[in-house]
Write a structure and sequence with these properties.
The protein has six helices and seven strands. The chain is α/β, with parallel strands linked by helices. The protein has a seven-stranded mixed sheet, with helices on both faces. The longest helix has 24 residues. It is found in: Cytoplasm.
Length: 196
């Protein structure tokens, strides 16, 4: 992909603040942080949106990345994303949301473009603010809550000790998936990563 197509807006969904940092709901922030490290960029407060932004390139002379962590809390994520999409002139097809997903098992990664939000407030807010559902989602499986635990409490709890053993590897793999979407496209990435 060349620069003429404009940058890619990669949105890590999560909640700001130290108390949320290790939550399942914050896996999008974790992936965004890792990607920033890979491209040698640091997050800083954006002057036009309630978000932290890091800019870099994927590889030498590669596609431009604008990494975003909204600072509005999950259910209002769409406002800053829409402002930044407008500011950087990014079309919806080059917006990637990285988010936790209850409907797939822990550690499974799935990619899709468009479709429903599956009750995810961050996605719902993004779809509303962007005026479309036609953006890419990188879905990080967190599985269903055990027993009768409320899903709202589950997503706002930290990963269990047994999950944390694999978390670093899985976040790294999710970052690989984001890079693959940008360099290869959605379908080739699905073919590559949906086996496991």
């Amino acid at each position: 992909m060349t620069d003429e197509a404009g940058p890619w807006l990669v949105v890590g969904l999560g909640n700001p603040g130290r108390e949320y940092a290790g939550n399942r709901h914050n896996v999008g922030f974790m992936v965004a942080d890792l990607l920033a490290g890979r491209v040698g960029a640091k997050f800083g407060r954006h002057r036009r949106a309630m978000a932290e932004v890091a800019e870099g390139r994927l590889g030498f002379g590669g596609p431009r990345l604008v990494l975003v962590k909204p600072l509005t809390y999950m259910n209002l994520s769409g406002g800053p994303v829409a402002s930044l999409a407008q500011f950087y002139k990014v079309v919806p097809g080059q917006v990637i949301a990285v988010h936790d997903e209850l409907d797939i098992g822990y550690g499974q990664l799935r990619v899709k473009c468009g479709g429903g939000e599956g009750g995810h407030n961050g996605l719902r807010s993004m779809s509303k603010s962007l005026g479309t559902k036609d953006y890419v989602r990188v879905r990080f499986g967190i599985g269903r809550p055990p027993g009768r635990q409320d899903p709202a409490d589950y997503v706002l709890s930290d990963f269990a000790a047994v999950e944390r053993k694999e978390l670093e590897f899985l976040v790294d793999r999710a970052a690989d998936v984001v890079e693959s979407v940008i360099t290869r496209g959605v379908e080739p990435t699905q073919n590559l990563y949906h086996g496991g």
